[in-house]
Amino acid sequence: MQVKTIKTIACLGTGTMGHGVAFLAAKAGYAVKLFGRSQESIKRGLSSIDRAIALYEDNKLMPAGEGDNIRKNITGVTTLEEAATGADLVMESVAEVLEVKHEVFAKVEAVCPETAIIATDTSGLDLEKIRTVFKHPERFLSIHFFTPPYLMPTVEVCPCSATLETVQKTAAQWVESIGNMPIALSTAVPGFIINRIQAAVLREALYIVEQGWASAETVDKAVANSLGRRYTQTGPIESADMGGWDILGALLDELGEVLCAYKKAPSLVNDLRAKGHLGLKTGQGHFPWPPERIQERRAARELSLIEFLRKDQEKKK
Fold this sequence. Notes:
Strand order of the largest sheet: 3-2-1-4-5-6-7-8
Mean pLDDT: 96
Number of strands: 8
Shape: globular
Helix content: 40-55%
Low-confidence stretches: none
Structural class: alpha/beta
Largest sheet: 8 strands, mixed
Distance between the termini: 29 Å
Number of domains: 3
CATH topology of the largest domain: Rossmann fold
Number of helices: 14
């Protein structure tokens, strides 16, 4: 299949990732079938899409009134058969449970066209374990978006061992067609690229807090105003190139043996989980999350990401 033959997208799941991908695909002109297990689920998904539309229009990321066309491109459905029938590309964003994904994909593969690309949005589950449910795993891969998909352009496009090269190439072209940036991996590894790096940074940050060397507030402030700013232009390897491998190599020699080497989540995280303090979603994590803080921090992050998108759009003109 070539990207020009992709017309209809099935988005499975109405949560954070599902509605975000549906918005981007519909905005790019694709016909979108948004699957939810109930009308209430679809209603929530469409409401989230309306919020994304308002965010784009209010911040002049798209012309006012374009939201009407986006909504017209989206049809809510409550069965997997309705979603997958006639779909040229299936984007799965359901629960991160292997058995659930197997159940979904078995039903999808049975009814979607033989030429359809079938993708999962997972980054945490093993693609080789997911692929075992397919009769034709050569058209299966991961297209991994980041939250929220319409403000985070990077998308990891990762094959399983059976994925055809042409399938990965077409998937990457489709990602470009909806305005995002495909990052192609040559093979599947746990966590892909971004989550591996994120886990390494988070592990060391938590270790510093756990050892009492600095508070969580201090660590966050330090990273946001140093590496956070630098990495917006140069990633870790190019930054090291610019700094000099004599200096950075010596740093790795010095710190390599004393960096955190935990193989599991530290006690700090386990204590929070045991108390049910899961962060923003429960109102308490390492930090308290009253409604006013949720609104303020979300708005601040959105505005920052919007500025990046605006600059990206200007570069493309």
